[in-house]
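HOLO CASE FILE
Compound: N~5~-D-lysyl-L-ornithine
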Amino acid sequence: MTRLVENDIAGLERELDVYEEELLKKTGLNLSEVACAGGNITIHDLRKAAQSYRVAVVPITSGEGVIGGFTQFVASIIRKMGFQATVTEETDVAGFYEGVCQENEIIFMADDKKFIALNLRTKKVIDNGYGTGRGFGAALAGMADGLAGREVLVIGFGPVGSSAAEYLLESGAKVAVYDQNELRMKETKKDMKQEPNLKQALKIYDFLIDATPEGEFISPEDLTDQAMIAAPGIPLGLNAQAFEKYKDRVIHDPLQIGVATMLALAVG
Ligand code: 2YJ
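Model generated. Tokens follow.
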């Protein structure tokens, strides 16, 4: 999983309203609606949860340390969904203690390996890869006006791609997978088609999930004219020309959909 850097999220907190307007325009869904679709809960249940849960986000200094603006941005995404959310003053274990003592029952925290949401009331723990995959699957379904019976190519079968693939299967889509790592290809389920050649596959599928950590490996001529792309992978797999051509049909963000869907899953 790619480690975010300060630049990936700089300025995004201020732009959250604009981000959500664009998401709505592309998918017909706002951030909470994408999260609820990915998390399999109703908006009504999300709103009820927003009244009963408080959320703390704990900065974690281990490994490569705190990423400037990361916890603040996570908290602002959660507030955007109608929940009370604070960043703890203390970090690490002291921050976790502070969050729990202040009666927060959902704790978000990330080190270099894992980013989790922990629901202390239900003991549920939600991984960012799982939330991100499902959320981007839901965003693609929104953009496509439903994916039941349609063929979707998932590129990259790590924690995000495999969760997106599962979600898409649940939604009735026909799922195909490409991963350059043969061991990962072996982890695909039998109801998922394996695509051995990426270039050939890109020419066929109109609906794509780019869940790779590779940048700029997709050019405009690789894609069908109708292609729609949900791209949780960082950096973006499309090169600049492909992005320019497809930008109205590309969903790509570093945290928003993943965090929102983690929250929906944590309270669901
Ligand atoms: O608390 C902090 O500021 C840091 N310890 C945050 C670390 C963030 N973690 C990562 O970037 C992970 N690799 C997971 C990111 C998942 C984004 N989809």
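CASE NOTES: The chain has twelve helices and eleven strands. The radius of gyration is 18 Å.
CLOSED: yes
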